[in-house]
């Protein structure tokens, strides 16, 4: 077919009639699709505008025309790569929930990588518990330990042991009951039968001194003198700690001297408030705790003799595992046969001892030992007292 030339505004357009007929046939046979700027291409016919100024390529004119007129249908938006990954993971999450085996697919580089996978069991409910503390305005006094103990006792939510029985032992110097503070009178030491003294009350007495082994000497002498001396602070008897200033007659209990702010020195001397130096001193002692082994030196033979000579005793005399019940006696006609070169065998002697059992390897039982008279000679009797068995009595003419 022939080409047709149109002339308009000094421009010549060459158009192919055969190509137009071919395009019209294709349009009638193919259904109409939404126009896409990416897939649609301009026809291969040559369109050219020529004027006196320049020559322009007309292939970009369809794109400029598309920007002006909006598309007939909304464009199809494809999600980015990471969103597509999330969309693809949803069917897997459903399968995971059914199988109860969570296997989360975390995205690399995101914040979810560091979180551990959480397990959710069927039928379990989660609740949040929030605490709100309200502090009242003004002066608030916290409860003391006694108030807290009383409150817990009323609620009945705590288990406490039985209270310790009160210590009724009394110091012969300061007349206070029970053990004292470590940085104060300190623990009680036994002086004699039912006689007790505080360690520092005895140690800081003027007559008392301590040996290298830890024995306190002249405690009884200080006690006898203290029964006649009156304390300058509490005006009670038993004061034994005097001021070391020459011709000073002020004397105190150890506890009263601390209350009166007397000054103690490392060489075991003390000055009353009237004679102590002003300010601090290099040799001043401000800590009175004694953790070394200290005991009262006493004559045990005389002490045992005094216990034996007492008639009715309310106390139990015990030495180690041996408990004395009765000492016994010897008459003049028994002296010949009831003694040896090392020991006496008084008739009526009775004592008990806790020792290993003869029947069981790791158990103890009680052995009751006594001395009786038989045909003018001593008879030694041992009675074995063990729980679950009858008493076994053993006798012989010698202690061995």
UniProtKB/TrEMBL annotation:
Q: Does the keyword Transcription regulation apply?
A: yes
Out of the domains of life, which is the source? Eukaryota
> Does DNA repair appear among the keywords?
no
Q: Name one GO biological process term.
A: methylation
Leader sequence segment: none
Residue stretches making up the PHD-type domain: 168-276
Please write the reaction equations for the catalytic activity of this protein. L-lysyl(4)-[histone H3] + S-adenosyl-L-methionine = N(6)-methyl-L-lysyl(4)-[histone H3] + S-adenosyl-L-homocysteine + H(+)
Q: Which UniProt keywords apply?
A: Chromatin regulator, Metal-binding, Methyltransferase, Nucleus, Repeat, S-adenosyl-L-methionine, Transcription, Transcription regulation, Transferase, Zinc, Zinc-finger
- State its location(s): Nucleus
- Give EC number(s), comma-separated: 2.1.1.364
Tell me the InterPro entries matching this sequence: EPHD, FYrich_N, Znf_RING/FYVE/PHD
Pfam families hit by this protein: FYRN, zf-HC5HC2H_2
Please give an example of a GO cellular component term from this record: MLL3/4 complex
GO-annotated molecular function: histone H3K4 monomethyltransferase activity; transcription coactivator activity; zinc ion binding
Which named protein is this?
[histone H3]-lysine(4) N-methyltransferase
Taxonomic source organism: Eubucco bourcierii (red-headed barbet)
């Amino acid at each position: 077919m022939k080409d047709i030339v149109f002339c308009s505004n000094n421009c010549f357009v060459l158009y192919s009639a055969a190509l137009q007929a071919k395009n019209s046939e294709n349009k009638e046979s193919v259904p109409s699709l939404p126009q896409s700027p990416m897939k649609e291409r301009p026809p291969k016919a040559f369109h050219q505008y020529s004027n006196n100024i320049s020559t322009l390529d007309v292939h970009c004119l369809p794109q400029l025309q598309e920007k002006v007129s909006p598309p007939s249908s909304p464009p199809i938006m494809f999600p980015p790569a990471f969103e597509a990954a999330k969309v693809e993971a949803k069917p897997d999450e459903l399968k995971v929930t059914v199988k109860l085996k969570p296997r989360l697919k975390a995205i690399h580089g995101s914040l979810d990588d560091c979180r551990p996978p959480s397990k959710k069991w069927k039928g379990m409910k989660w609740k949040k518990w929030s605490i709100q503390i309200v502090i009242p305005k003004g002066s608030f006094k916290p409860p003391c330990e006694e108030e807290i103990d009383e409150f817990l006792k009323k609620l009945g939510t705590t288990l406490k042991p039985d209270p310790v029985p009160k210590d009724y032992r009394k110091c012969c110097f300061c007349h206070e009951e029970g053990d004292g503070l470590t940085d104060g009178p300190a623990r009680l030491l036994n002086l004699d039968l039912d006689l007790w003294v505080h360690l520092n009350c005895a140690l800081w007495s003027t007559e008392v001194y301590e040996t290298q082994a830890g024995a306190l000497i002249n405690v009884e002498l200080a006690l006898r003198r203290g029964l006649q001396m009156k304390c300058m602070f509490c005006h009670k008897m038993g004061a034994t700690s005097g001021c070391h200033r020459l011709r000073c007659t002020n004397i105190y209990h150890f506890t009263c001297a601390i209350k009166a702010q007397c000054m103690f020195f490392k060489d075991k001397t003390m000055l009353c408030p009237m004679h102590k130096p002003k300010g601090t001193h290099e040799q001043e002692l401000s800590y009175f705790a004694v953790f070394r082994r200290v005991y009262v030196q006493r004559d045990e033979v005389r002490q045992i003799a005094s216990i034996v000579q007492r008639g009715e005793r309310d106390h139990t005399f015990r030495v180690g595992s041996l408990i004395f019940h009765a000492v016994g006696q010897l008459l003049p006609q028994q002296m010949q046969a009831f003694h040896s070169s090392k020991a006496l065998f008084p008739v009526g002697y009775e004592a008990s001892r806790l020792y290993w059992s003869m029947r069981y390897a790791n158990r103890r039982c009680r052995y009751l030992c006594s001395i009786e008279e038989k045909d003018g000679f001593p008879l030694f009797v041992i009675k074995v007292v063990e729980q679950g068995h009858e008493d076994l009595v053993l006798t012989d003419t010698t202690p061995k």
